[in-house]
Amino acid sequence: MLMTDIIGRKRDGHKLSREEISFFVEGYAKGEIPDYQASALLMAILLRGMDSEETLQLTMAMMHSGETIDLSSVSGVKADKHSTGGVGDKTSLVLCPMVAAQGVKIAKISGRGLGHTGGTIDKLESFPGFTTGISEETFLQNVNEVGIAIAGQTADLVPADKKLYALRDVTGTVPSIPLIVSSIMSKKLAAGADVIVLDVKQGSGTFMKSFEQAKELAEALTMVGRLAGKKTVAVITDMDEPLGNAVGNALEVREAIEVLKGEKQGELLELCLTLGACMLTEAGLAADDGEAREKLMAGIADGSALKKLAEFVSAQEGDSSAVYDLSKLPKAPVPYEVIYNNNGYVNRISADEVGLTVLQLGGGRVTKESSIDLSVGVVLKKKVGDEVRAGESLATVHASCEEKAGEAAERLLACYSISPESCEKPPFIKAIVR
Ligand code: URA
User: Fold this and answer.
1) Global pTM?
2) Residue among 80, 171, 174 to mutate when testing ligand 1 (max atoms within 8 A of CB)
3) Which of 49, 183, 265, 417 is most buried, taking the most CB atoms under 10 A from its CB?
């Protein structure tokens, strides 16, 4: 088989066979196919597309490029959740304990933040001592006994995606539905869960700018999940503004704990109830959405969801007393209010720009090797649709020094678009694709 023939066939709009797709993925992962040929094929796929069978074959070939996790020793239904990425997205911190308290087993591989988006592992490291560097044996034992384990991506899990994603990043081939689907689903399938719930973000700060694009992605993801024998649901949610109020690692952990304590309602809770209800119904632990939501809310009211978070943090060597005593979480020394001097209504908050403001404060990574300040970030007090009166604060910046606080406040002010006319907040949950 020749790589030049495979490139030519896709360039001319033909369907690739399972053998051709495997030849490419295996050859590229082993370093036998050069970057320039892989780049040409990726661009041909981006321009010509792939049907569901080709996308499934690409996903399976990528999944088999490395090790997979065998969860057969774990009793009960195993579930995993994935978000296509966003700003202020602390959903996993709330959702995982909420569903684990109801008997779903969470075995999750998470990432760190890069650029303007955050990562679950960095957020969890706000608990002093917390580690994701656990052995496979401990990971399986924790899923079985505690009900949640979260580990970092290892070099052995889907190595083809690591190489291909890095190449896509520099060849303009990230926004392709078959390439995104195979990248996400190969990692989810390698992680071994029975139920996969996907949070597909739509909005200015995401790959999928329009609802139609997000729906196409959600349908392609669920199709591949189902064809691979997994119960898969995708929820399309808004990411035109950051999720919830806090952006920044320890600040997001605080907000997650407030939701788990039942002290905070709003879109973060609604998202966790929607995703959690999908998990419970697909896992057969609730008859329908209504019963699932009732169970999840009962877990918040009786404290079992919060207790599950503490057990999980403790099982991964973190100081779980911080769950009950928030003063033990990292805290930035300089709080700084962002004051607005007119009357109006918030009609837009640029999610990307807020993420970049937190990055500039030191709360994010510019390169994979950068160290981050877990304590810094922003808390948005006004969100889209809210009225603002002259002299009110739009947000609080939490910074390491006055100078950085002032710079971030200026930048944050520019993230807001405020108009004299009131505006409707768009629906947050846009669709559920089963
Ligand atoms: N997330 C992934 O893991 N891969 C993509 O291609 C896009 C988002």
Assistant:
1) 0.93
2) 174
3) 183
Which atom of ligand 1 lies at the shortest distance from residue 179's CA?
A: 6
**Does the pLDDT value for residue 82 go beyond 90?**
yes
The mean predicted confidence, pLDDT, of the chain is 95
Instruction: Give the Å distances, CA to CA, from 339 to 163, 226, 335.
Output: 45, 50, 13
Quote the ligand 1 centre to 386 CA distance (angstroms).
Answer: 33
pLDDT at 114: 67
Residue 188 CA to ligand 1 centre (angstroms): 11
Q: Which band of pLDDT confidence, cut at 50, 70 and 90, is reported for residue 365?
A: confident
> Using CB atoms within 10 A of its CB, is residue 2 exposed (0-12), middle (13-18) or buried (19+)?
exposed
The residue among 164, 172, 179, 162 whose CA lies nearest residue 33 is 164
- Rounded to an integer, what distance in angstroms lies between the CA atom of residue 307 and that of residue 101? 8
- 3-state percent helix, strand, coil for the chain, nearest multiple of 5: 45, 15, 35
